[in-house]
Amino acid sequence: MSFFSKLRDRLTRSSSKIGSGLEDIVSEAAADEKPASPAPAASQPATEPEARPGVLGRLLGRAPAVAEPRRELDDAMLEELEEMLIQADMGVETALRVTANIAEGRMGRRVSATELKELLADEIARIMTPVAKPLPLYPKRPQVVLVVGVNGSGKTTTIGKLASQFKAAGKKVVIAAGDTFRAAAVEQLQVWGQRAGVPVMTAPEGSDPASLAFDAMTKAEAEGADLLMIDTAGRLQNRQDLMEELAKIVRVIRKKDPSAPHNTLLVLDATTGQNALSQVEIFRKLADVSGLVMTKLDGTARGGVLVALADRFGLPIHAIGVGEQIDDLDAFDARDFARALVGLGD
Ligand SMILES: Nc1nc2c(ncn2[C@@H]2O[C@H](COP(=O)(O)OP(=O)(O)OP(=O)(O)O)[C@@H](O)[C@H]2O)c(=O)[nH]1
């Protein structure tokens, strides 16, 4: 199954919220109106073709989309659209901007839900394309990837999935279980390491994570590893401690390589919705976040938050997770995500 198919299948809680939201906005009002004039599309600009049924629709011989209800784009409709996007966790500013862009040059036109979905997907893709960047790989060996994020956000799983994918791509990977205070986190990382066939460096419970990071750096250098992925603690309850812990890890690995860490990945859980925005703000103060990974897009109707994140921070989005299996994480593709999010096909 292609990742797009998987994404579309698993993003359904978000996409049904947005997709049916758009359909409701158009059809509820259209139901109150008299039947549309016979050829509303005839007066539309040539650059905005009438919506066509998708490939599946054509194969099944569905009636062309002219039968779809249409609604005149006016202030009331824009307000509903804005409200729906806010409800879908896109954030107020992003929802306003997206709605304004959709409205531009189209006020008074009669649009169908399919057209609206296409317009919305284009707007979302436009916002997200500049940030859709896979984790950059450098010739530097070992490339040190520090992974930060609150407990439970999916750091361990993301490290396991990335390690396994890099290993499959022929890279030599070492993992350091830097959350030394939580035995369960270390064990979980060891399970992922075994699954991926990647060594996991651990340290006794409660020992200094920076000292583990140093040892892991030594091992990665000695073994000629391409990548060293360092898991870290995510205790936000005591931010000062966490900041010092992260700063110490960075100080120590810089003794071995002044250019490290080469990436600082912030892992965010999509189910936290708008809270993900404040997590970015907090972690940017704690660490020099260079890119984002968003997990658990499969279990939530709040996937729109990724659009808000892209719009607000402009940080690279390296990958997204849509499940718990090794191949449920893939590079972020703006167009695919935008289309899946509004419930459109490839
Ligand atoms: N449905 C789903 N579950 C996920 C995804 N990514 C991670 N999980 C699950 O989320 C839970 C937390 O993930 P972890 O990787 O342990 O998160 P963590 O940030 O390392 O958390 P700690 O180990 O508590 O520090 C686990 O049960 C994972 O299986 C995803 O993309 N989709």
TrEMBL record:
Reactions catalysed according to its record: GTP + H2O = GDP + phosphate + H(+)
Which Pfam families does the UniProt entry name for this protein?
SRP54 (PF00448), SRP54_N (PF02881)
**Mind listing the GO molecular function terms for this protein?**
GTP binding; GTPase activity; signal recognition particle binding
Q: Where does the protein principally reside?
A: membrane
Q: Tell me which residues bind GTP.
A: 149-156, 231-235, 295-298
| Top EC class, one word | hydrolase
Question: What are the protein's UniProt keywords?
Answer: Cell inner membrane, Cell membrane, Cytoplasm, GTP-binding, Hydrolase, Membrane, Nucleotide-binding, Receptor
Instruction: Give the family from UniProt.
Output: Belongs to the GTP-binding SRP family. FtsY subfamily.
Protein name, entry field: Signal recognition particle receptor FtsY
